[in-house]
Amino acid sequence: MSDLKVNSIAGVLLASVLGVMGVGTAADAVFHPHWPEKAGFMPEIAEAGGGPSGPAQEGPPDFGRLFADPVQYAELVARGERGVGVCKSCHTFQAGGADGIGPNLHDVFGRRAATHPGFSFSQAMHEHTVVWSYDTLNEYLRSPSQVVRGTRMAFAGIRNTNDRVAVLAYLRSIAPSPPALPAPLPEAAPAAAAPAGAAAGAAASPAPATPATPAPH
To answer: What is the pLDDT of residues 78-104, one digit of tens each?
Structure first.
């Protein structure tokens, strides 16, 4: 192959490469890729109703209604027994069980805080002078560090209300003498309806008549 032919082929290849580079530069000039200076991130989704100061506040569950139905209660107990699996690294649940990092919880219902025999509680828990009931346990398990400032219990809490109710159902089921169920909470009253007489009067009242336009004289 002659030198002239080789040079011609090399020239064609070089021209093709330059052409492709030119097209890329023009595309960047028209469609400038505005890449962010920092990598993107997934936003944190706060719990509904929560705020920067702590978890959202809510009313107590209706234990008197939830635990009164035997079938529903049995389902909650089974769910709660599975739920306390994560607690067993610190607590025991059987009667006479040894204390671990946390106290035995077999008879926690009805017990005053920081009174389990033989366990060394934090000063903060000693100062938390409550009896563990449906409502006090529900509040504490939702966010231990918020309820008892300074507790040694390194557990974020059970934020899901259904999971928390199930754990309480299980704790109640193993308690030797659980407290009586509270009375069911009153159901919300229906929205007040307008008085029947007022509604009928409004329907019967005729619309004001539009005065007739006088005929031109």
So the answer is: 999 999 999 999 999 999 999 999 999
Residue range of the domain that includes 165: 63-174
Specify whether the CB–CB gap between 123 and 150 falls below 8 A: yes
Residue 153's SS3 state is coil
Q: Is the pTM of this model over 0.70?
A: no
CA distance 211 to 72: 68
Evaluate whether residue 194 is within a structural domain.
no
The CATH number assigned to the domain holding 144 equals 1.10.760.10
Within a domain: 129: yes
Q: Does the residue 24 lie in any domain?
A: no
Distance CA 18, CA 22 (A): 6
Buried b (16+ CB within 10 A) or exposed e, 117-129: eeeebeebbeebe
Q: What are the angstrom distances between the C-alpha of 19 and each of 11, 14, 16, 29, 49?
A: 12, 9, 5, 15, 59
pLDDT tens across 134-178, in order? 999 999 999 999 999 999 998 999 999 999 999 999 999 999 999
40 belongs to a structural domain = no
CA–CA–CA angle 130, 134, 137 (5° rounding) = 55
The total of structural domains in the chain comes to 1
Residue 37 has φ and ψ, to the nearest 5°, of -70, -30
